[in-house]
Design goal:
With about 350 residues, the chain is α/β, with parallel strands linked by helices. It folds into 2 domains: about 5-165, Rossmann fold, CATH 3.40.50; about 205-360. The protein is about 60% helix and about 5% strand. The protein contains 14 helices and 5 strands. The protein has helices at about 10-25, 40-50, 60-65, 85-95, 125-130, 150-155, 170-175, 180-190, 195-205, 210-220, 225-265, 270-315, 320-340, 345-360, and strands at about 30, 75, 105-110, 140-145, 160. The chain has a 5-stranded parallel β-sheet with strand order 2-3-4-1-5, with helices on both faces. Strand 2 (about 75), helix 4 and strand 3 (about 105-110) form a beta-alpha-beta unit. The N and C termini lie far apart (about 60 Å). Bound molecules: zinc ion.
């Protein structure tokens, strides 16, 4: 349990496969995992197991170097824009042709390879070419959160390892193992929407409980006037702003840590531009997740109401019948808002529309 694979929470099938392959690797792997499943951690872990003489003990110098991002034979390919560019893939291929400096493998890691089929000139053909007959001591580790059809041929050249979204219990257990107190671990896991990364941020957020209580209270506060709905939409925006503070702290901390490690090990630190692009992506994802959590918290309140009114209605309460219809409409409006959330960039408009739909003026 204490070997390097202990880091991968709730991924026993993937861990079995990776453990097996660490002993006798083929030349390319593709780790596929839904958002929150920590593809990045799986790639780091597997890279460590490949370099470790004991196939992933988690404690030796080889393991530690990889986990700290300090193994010169483990190369993380870098992407400047949203899509992978052909020249970036070629650079990764150039590194892949190098002989490893150490006794292990030359490992080239490319994350988000689904972005090799995006953009004006997709780089998937270049990626496919670099996977053809790499040197014997080279291993490609690719990561993706989805597999668009344009990636079929790339996938066919890799061993595919699938991650699953971890359960709340898995996440709670992991946080406990990292030293988070029991109550905070449970609350963070329940609000993490299956993402260990998000759970880690929430575990350090003392305002989480107050924020959830705010979302839970919204249905009772609605139903007055348009002014009330407007005020609630504004307050919701403020709650979302508050939720971002711990994430921003953790982004700055990890950038600082990375800079220190790069200095210490003579590696290459992230540039300011890379950090800002990364931070923007993380912030956007975190904010969408936070709003999803708020909407699902409200939905739970309406579902509780529905259960109560259905029971009252069975007991012959005619007013409860009427309320059931209103509550079902509210749940529909919330589900519609959650669907819109994946495509809209205008969170303010979404909240405004939703809260007006939920108000029965
Ligand atoms: Zn080791």
């Amino acid at each position: 349990m204490t070997d390097v694979f202990g880091r991968l929470v709730g991924q026993s099938a993937a861990v079995d496969a990776l453990r097996h392959h660490a002993r006798q690797p083929v030349h390319a792997y593709l780790v596929l995992g839904p958002a929150g499943s920590d593809v990045h951690d799986a790639l780091v872990t597997f890279a460590a197991a490949l370099q470790c003489p004991a196939h992933g003990c988690g404690a030796c110098a080889a393991c530690r170097r990889v986990l700290e991002g300090a193994d010169p034979d483990v190369h993380w390919a870098e992407r400047a824009g949203l899509a992978w560019r052909v020249d970036e893939i070629r650079e990764a291929e150039r590194v892949a042709r190098r002989r490893p400096l150490g006794v292990g493998y030359q490992i080239v890691v490319l994350e988000d390879v689904e972005l090799a089929v995006a953009g004006a000139s997709p780089s998937a053909p270049a990626l496919l070419k670099s996977l053809e007959e790499p040197p014997t001591r080279t291993v490609f580790l690719l990561g993706a959160s989805e597999l668009p059809p344009g990636l079929d041929t790339v996938v066919s050249r890799c061993v595919l390892v699938r991650l699953v979204a971890p359960t709340d219990a898995d996440i709670e257990e992991r946080l406990r193992a990292e030293g988070v107190p029991a109550d905070a671990a449970r609350a963070a896991a329940n609000a993490a929407l299956g993402s260990l990364e998000r759970a880690r941020v929430l575990a350090g957020d003392p305002a989480l409980a107050a924020r959830l209580a705010w979302w839970r209270a919204v249905p009772d506060r609605l139903g007055g006037t348009p002014a009330v709905a407007s005020a609630l939409a504004r307050e919701a925006g403020e709650r979302l702003d508050e939720a971002m503070a711990p994430l921003e702290r953790s982004l700055v901390e990890s950038a600082t840590r990375e800079r220190e490690e790069a200095g210490q090990f003579g590696g290459r630190a992230t540039t300011r531009r890379e950090f800002e692009a990364h931070a923007r992506r993380e912030q956007r994802r975190f904010r969408v997740d936070e709003l999803t959590l708020g909407l699902s918290t409200m939905t739970a309140v309406y579902r509780e109401r529905l259960a109560r009114d259905l029971e009252a209605s069975r007991d012959g309460d005619a007013r409860a019948d009427h309320r059931v219809i209103g509550t079902l409409r509210s749940i529909d409006a919330l589900l519609e808002a959650q669907r819109r959330l994946t495509t809209t960039l205008d969170e303010g408009l979404l909240l405004h529309d939703l809260l007006f739909a939920l108000s029965d003026f």
